[in-house]
Fold this protein.
Amino acid sequence: NAGVMQNPRHLVRRRGQEARLRCSPMKGHSHVYWYRQLPEEGLKFMVYLQKENIIDESGMPKERFSAEFPKEGPSILRIQQVVRGDSAAYFCASSPAETYGYTFGSGTRLTVV
Amino acid sequence: QQQVKQSPQSLIVQKGGISIINCAYENTAFDYFPWYQQFPGKGPALLIAIRPDVSEKKEGRFTISFNKSAKQFSLHIMDSQPGDSATYFCAASKKEGYSTLTFGKGTMLLVSP
């Protein structure tokens, strides 16, 4: 059973471009969480999704950021018009239900140049 | 407002020694306190977790001590090994139903041979 799969592992974007980060949860998991980790900082919650629904997006910036988890396919975190401050590691986690202790993927490291 | 404060920022311990990392929280609604271990280039992995109804939990060489009245909890790594060298994050979750985590800023542990 593969773990939480995130791709790409590394992503370089120029300022103003769009970044699309993908997360495939573990098999049987229908709950997905996105976190952002800035250098020398802990992880910060961004958004929690279930299939086709955004449950809590309280940690996600109101502008330029969006997330989806369609019925089929991976969850997508989209960042439009990226700026240097968006450079960070973005981690996805999944769980089978509304439980504690979910599993994280290895992350996507976004660099904005 | 930092809801979970973690210290020290970095720690060097000799092989065989005890590593101690401390966390303090502010929100009394927190009811789940996990510790995560993160190796470079990897996502955080759940190490051990505790609920506030117990004061201590031990799993192998890892022990969580919890002081509800002081709103503090700590991770003790007994007989520390070079393979334990990693960044450790404490976290807390406060809402029943789903578990968004509030993380500390992390402690970089180096166990010298």
